[in-house]
Fold:
Amino acid sequence: MTALFALATSLLWGLADFGGGLLTRRTPALTVVVVSQTIAVVVLGALVVATGGWSEAGPQLWYAVAAGAVGPVAMLAFYKALALGPMGVVSPLGSLGVVVPVSVGLLLGDRPGVLQFAGIGVAVAGVVLAGGPELRGAPVRRQAVLLTLVAAFGFGAVMALISEASTTLTGLFLALFVQRVTNVAVGGAALYASVKRGGRALSEDGGIRVVVGALPALAFVGLADVAANGTYALAAQHGPVTVAAVLASLYPVVTALAARGVLKERLRAVQAAGAGLALVGTVLLAAG
Structure:
């Protein structure tokens, strides 16, 4: 079950990243974060009411609050990086955040088997290579890499925090709701501050019409991201956090393939090799 939930996480996160990256090319990244997460809040609020999730409230929800505070910073940095650089390069570098939950898992006592340790190494190497890392080049590329590394640490922290925020399914709905409310509060405050400093909340060509027209895509991004957090939490509860985190971090391969299929971004030989190694690592982790 750990492998199944974690792979579902990688699929959902990969598609959410692809959609978010496309949206930020026409709409400011903070607006994408706030609107997509607001839609998620509405849906999760309905789920909490329907399942009686309020009864699961407790001190562990502070983990969800912390995850919600870190999340917008990571998402904003990542969406800006995606808007600056090719998705097939930026997204895999973002998966370096897997170091955070893997380290936490090891500190808490996770001891993967030999095959799983090998799978972790192969999968992480494959994900990095799948980006065909290009650290030299124009200033825009260097800025994209820096933003991606900031996002990677944030994503890793969110993974570690959300896995500690609940122990039951109804509690998970409540934890995700609290996380997203915090996301909207932090992101909304940042958007307000940005506008006060002269920044834009809407695109120059189309304004509010662009946001309204993109609502289905924004809803998909927000709900896919929520679902990914949920499946990751379930994966971490059903097995070693180290295994769940690495398998969940294969999402850049999904983003790169989506960019290849939709945007016709060409994969270099090193990227194709990296995708293959990521697949081999997945098999080793599942077999272990």
